[in-house]
User: Fold this.
Amino acid sequence: MNTLDEFLSYVEGDTFREQCQSICGCLRDVDSRYDWVGIYWLKGNELILGPWSGPQATEHDRIPISEGICGAAAREGQTIIVDDVQKDPRYLACFLTTRSEIVVPIRKNKKIIGEIDIDGKVAGAFNDQDREFLEMLAEYIGSQWPGRW
Ligand code: SME
Assistant:
């Protein structure tokens, strides 16, 4: 996959919700390092799990922004890459197989409205290319957000 445009050509769905669901599945389809992909929406001080795609459901479908790597990314307003989740005290464990994680904030008019959360099965799975691509994707999602969930 080369560009955001190429990736978006795989995305299906008539509504924003359907497109976000498709984005989660397409990310896993195009890159096997993306083992579990979810989008959390920020509502008040809580992150609420929206669409996701992965081998199993997470029990963390609501995360206070005071907790987890997801909470840290929302509080700090920046992408967080964790090479080894076992060494990060902020980590909220979902799956025994997860070793690394990337969380990318989604903004609408500069305000954080959610984030893309991706878990990987090997340590150090994610790099600056992932950051760059996922930040462009997050910008696209934010630009499409209809202003309500
Ligand atoms: N690991 C995340 C929680 C969400 S699961 O990865 C799906 C965290 O530490 O915030």
